[in-house]
Design goal:
With about 260 residues, this protein is α/β, with parallel strands linked by helices. About 20% of the residues lie in helices and about 25% in strands. It contains seven helices and 15 strands. The longest helix is centred in the C-terminal third of the chain and has 11 residues.
Length: about 260
């Protein structure tokens, strides 16, 4: 199984329009440092699962018939905006799972088009997506949000975004099992009172609690990129980058 980061940025990711900070100038000069909306693509066998749909040009990148499933963490616009064009394509319905948010986003439920919204998966229960086991995990955010634990033949990857710290039941669930890779919300540099997202202090505290073999920081703001330029991370913790791929199932994750 491989997971590719399609985007690793929050809503204030570099390059932020009109900003001349170092991170934004660097991203304007070199697109390799730019961050798109936080999302990923999971692939194995014939499966292509989109994890969140915030990329605005999603419909041109994934024409109908190229995605087997869509898995959403929540219904904030920066995680679903690509669905508004994708839904009007022509082709087979695409099954979509997300948390049990009765409001969803705008008129997605009323006019789903190709999107086949399925009943929400039960938290803390593993569900089979082909050979991949998917367990929803409640998170702490301003909108009902699920993270996910992916188990690929015993290799476990937790995707915990968007969140500010963890609910106690989710933390207790994850502490009870070995974790190979952790992808964690880290929107901000140290903050006295973070709101809807982890700052780096809280993201690293979660990593210390769960003890994964490798931690990837995602949903980064331009301010977080500026902080990273001055502050090295400890071994086993790295900021993810757009286009990076994790190959799961090997003894140690391989990145390309």
């Amino acid at each position: 199984m491989k997971l590719t980061f399609l985007g690793t940025g929050g809503v204030t990711a570099a390059p932020l329009p009109g900003c001349d900070c170092r991170a934004c100038q660097r991203a304007q000069r070199n697109s390799a440092h730019a961050r798109a909306a936080c999302s990923a693509l999971i692939e194995f066998g014939h499966e292509r699962i989109l994890l969140d749909a915030g990329l605005p040009l999603l419909a041109s990148r994934f024409p109908p018939g190229t995605l087997t499933r869509i898995l959403l963490t929540h219904y904030h616009m920066d995680h679903v905006q690509g669905l508004f064009a994708l839904r009007w394509g022509v082709g087979a319905p695409i099954p979509v799972w997300g948390p049990p948010d009765p409001r969803g986003c705008d008129d997605l439920y009323k006019h789903p088009g190709l999107l086949d919204f399925r009943p929400a998966l039960t938290p803390f229960v593993a569900h089979a997506f082909g050979e991949l086991q998917v367990t929803p995990l409640p998170l702490q955010h301003s909108k009902l949000t699920h993270g996910y634990l992916f188990d690929w033949h015993g290799t476990r990857l937790a995707w915990l975004c968007d969140t500010c710290e963890l609910p106690s039941d989710t933390a207790d669930f994850l502490r009870g099992q070995p974790l190979d890779q952790l992808v964690i919300d880290c929107n901000d540099p140290p903050r006295a009172e973070p709101r809807n997202h982890n700052d780096v202090t809280r993201a690293l505290a979660i990593a210390a609690l769960l003890q994964p073999r490798q931690t990837w920081l995602t949903h980064l703001s331009h301010e977080m990129d500026n902080w990273l330029a001055e502050n090295p991370l400890s071994e086993g913790v790295q900021p993810a980058r757009d286009g990076q791929t994790l190959l799961c199932g090997a003894h140690w994750p391989v990145t390309v």
